[in-house]
Design brief:
Length: 272
DNA sequence: CTTATTCCCTGATTGC
DNA sequence: TGCAATCAGGGAATAA
């Protein structure tokens, strides 16, 4: 489940390894019919080689390879996608959905068990991410605007944190963790969250994402970084997937409910 | 416009 | 132990 900290870790890993490299070959498995968006996988594999990678950036959970001639190669890992740098050919793997050779002999290997991952080759990637909300770790994520947005919505605050148009990059793990840190019941309607609580949630989101980034992300199931190594933050979560285990603050068993169609973990005593 | 639900996909987990 | 049902979840599509 790569969210902002995981995608950012991959970006930082890959940047020095691929910057300045040219793509010499591309292969997409015919068993991944939905991987390439907006064009056929054949066209994608034909058009990508020859491009030079000038940088690697990120927007929300989207990883973006900035190419020459104004093109962008955009990757979304969704649930189980992994994008790894390999000094040699990608190893044999039944879930390898695509691979890309570079001009220094290295490869980028895209592995995705559940085939939810997506890629685009575009010349105006704003079209792909149109409507994404602010970047939570940038100054554009403002307390007042965030609190105002919550005030205008009646959906559960947890569902709003998962809405990428509200803010970009938060998924199920960090939504639960931020709500715990702010002491807010995830089921509470956005417009019932007080201004001070909304401000606290705003700060908690930033803090939780920063901490997870420092731990190179959370590896609960499938996530690995750009070199194939696990993160460490799964060892430090306070509520996510801790159903029935005691709250670290008050000892009350952590509860699991479904909010916005997603499993949600919270402390019924610390979060009201 | 909003919110809620379904779908995609397959390995891991749970229940009998 | 075996096998079917359920779970996991990001985001698009659909329904209301």
């Amino acid at each position: 489940m790569p969210e902002l900290p995981e995608v950012e870790t991959i970006r930082r890993d890959l940047l020095p390894l691929v910057k300045g490299r040219s793509i010499t070959g591309a292969w997409v498995s015919e068993d991944a019919p939905r991987l390439v968006q907006l064009m056929s996988r054949e066209e994608f594999a034909r058009l990508l080689p020859g491009h030079r990678i000038e940088g690697v950036s990120r927007r929300g959970k989207y990883l973006v390879f900035d190419l020459d001639r104004g093109m962008q190669w955009v990757v979304h890992l969704r649930m189980t996608g992994r994008l790894r740098h390999s000094a040699a050919e990608c190893e044999e793997d039944p879930y390898l959905r695509a691979k890309f050779s570079l001009d220094d002999g290295a490869w980028l290997c895209f592995n995705d068990v559940r085939k939810f991952g997506m890629m685009w080759l575009v010349d105006d990637w704003a079209l792909v991410h149109a409507g994404l909300g602010p970047e939570p770790l940038e100054a554009e994520f403002e307390t007042a605007a965030f609190a105002g947005l919550l005030k205008r919505r009646s959906a559960p605050v947890k569902a709003l944190l998962l809405d990428q148009t509200v803010l970009a990059g938060v998924g199920n793990i960090y939504a639960d963790e931020a709500l715990f840190a702010a002491g807010i019941d995830p089921r509470k309607a956005g417009n019932k969250v007080s201004r001070p609580k909304a401000a606290r949630l705003h700060d908690a989101i930033i803090e939780v994402l920063h901490e997870a980034l420092g731990d190179r992300g959370s590896s609960f199931r499938d996530y690995v970084d750009g070199q194939g190594n696990e993160g460490r933050h799964q060892l430090k979560v306070k509520v996510y997937q801790r159903t029935d285990q005691p709250c670290y603050v008050c000892g009350t068993p952590i509860r699991r409910v479904v909010v916005g169609g997603r499993s949600t973990h919270f402390c019924p005593k610390c979060q009201r």
